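Render this sequence as a predicted structure.
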Amino acid sequence: MKHLVLKTALMAAVVGIPAGGAQAADYKKNPFTLAYDGAITKNEPGKVNIHPVRYTLHGLEIAANVYTPANYDPAKSYPAVVVAHPNGGVKEQVAGLYAQRLAELGYVTIAADAAYQGASAGQPRNVDKPAYRIEDIHGMADFITRFSGVDGKRLGLLGLCGGGGYSLAAADTDKRFKAVATVSMFNSGRVRRNGYVDSQLGSIRDRLQQASAARAQEVAGGGVLYSGDAKLTDEQIARLPFELYRQGYAYYWKTHAHPNSTFRYTTSSLLDLMRFDATGQIELINQPLLMIAGSRADSLYMSEDAFAKASGTKDKELFKIEGATHIETYWVPRYVDAAIDKLAAFYTRTL
């Protein structure tokens, strides 16, 4: 037992989680299976409420949660914010946390599982194509702008991690979004193509060949191949070369785990991912833009690159949360508070 306690404490130190707090956001203890601290446990009059909803997008049923502000009155008019979840994440994790916190500030918010992922429909499971993820964001806008009490002319967008990159791409053309924000933006196309921190430039062609073979196998009925599906031990996680991945495993598999959340994606998705770049048409964004990232995040380079390329808007800011890593912006209270404070001022001014 003593050895187990010491091992747990050591792992907590390595990945940056509090020893003894690993089950603080246990989805099994929440009636809505929300996996974040401070989550709603029941709907009560006069408080922020959660509304599980389903709607159809291109023939697929999408599962989403809508959060309404305290004392919500459908006869009144409210600004709204669409919240896009990270790669591998689901609406019950960090997307739900930010959606709930924004609802506490008076916004109607929506967080939906991407098509083919989470509780949303679509086969094969865990397809992760940029066009689909971007369309998911358009679909959330479609739904929430028709929700009772929502003023469609005051619609904001918030993208988290991979959802941040897809939000930039969605906002290139979807001008229903009057203000665009990202937290810990992750450019999925760049990373899948070049490797994290551009560490796999020498193997691009080999990996494209593997993705092509995976698609050929699917078409031939030979089964679906997946990437990112490894089950790692604590020791293997500790040896991962990047902090984002070490802390990401802890977040998604330990402290904020949810059965619908998985790192895996179809290998054939790489054919689409590797030709995508979140900044490809970023100059089309003419809306106010706020990008938030941790000052210690090893993913910061992606926000800095996108921010520099966002030449279509003069109303833009890159805000760095001092001391925060990528994953810590998902759940560490002081860093989440800092992000929410910045988002509150931004959306108040722009919506």
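Summary. The mean pLDDT is 93. The radius of gyration is 19 Å.
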